[in-house]
Amino acid sequence: MTSHPVTALLLVDVINSFFRPGDPNYYPQADQVLEPIRQLLDKARASGTLVVHTAERHREGIYDFEWAKLPVHHIEGDDTIDFVEGFGPLPGEPVVYKRRYSAFYATDMALMLREQNVSRLVTVGVKTNCCIRATVQDAFAGGFEPVVVREATNSNRPHLEEASLEDIWRYFGQVVPLSEGLELLA
């Protein structure tokens, strides 16, 4: 491991479903993360830091085990799974589609990051207590250093958000303010 970790910015589920009123997973607090994410995204792109987008996708007409816990959602071809305008991938920015909460489970995320020599992930998006926590836990288990930017993630269940951030800080990685997240992407 080098003394200067190679960092990537990981955007988790910055898709219409969470941010567009009336869509299945929308909650008003989600909008609060967009400006901090925009700042981090602009900084990463300006500095040449790898930006990775991840989004949940499920297949039309194919049973998914997740339906046992949640209503059917994020079906391929539905516009709820489109990236929020202005937050989608630019050419050269990889997209990793996932069928579970974690961006690492049953995807090629770890392989792709290792091939880019990434060791630290600045992770942002929604929801802190679900997809962010699961992704961070699996990143840690896979030998990556997770960093969550506090202002760039939230949940519609604040008590679970706070508990998840405490767990992340205590057991898996760092929880940092926006200013530190921006420094890590310089």
Walk me through this protein's architecture.
It holds the Pfam family Isochorismatase. This is Isochorismatase. InterPro entries: Isochorismatase-like_dom, Isochorismatase-like_hydrls, Isochorismatase-like_sf. It is a single chain. With 186 residues, this protein is of the alpha/beta class. The model has no long low-confidence stretch (mean pLDDT 95). Helix 4 packs parallel to helix 5. It has a single domain, classed as Isochorismatase-like (Rossmann fold, 3-Layer(aba) Sandwich), CATH 3.40.50. Helix 5 (158-172) links the parallel strand 5 (145-154) and strand 6 (174-176). The chain has helices spanning 16-19, 34-47, 109-115, 128-141, 158-172, 178-184, and strands at residues 7-12, 50-56, 95-98, 120-126, 145-154, 174-176. The protein contains 6 helices and 6 strands, in the order βααββαβαβαβα. The chain has a 6-stranded parallel β-sheet, sandwiched between helices.
List the helices and strands and how they pair.
Layout: E1 7-12, H1 16-19, H2 34-47, E2 50-56, E3 95-98, H3 109-115, E4 120-126, H4 128-141, E5 145-154, H5 158-172, E6 174-176, H6 178-184
Parallel strand pairs: 1-2, 1-4, 2-3, 4-5, 5-6
Helix pairs in contact: 4-5
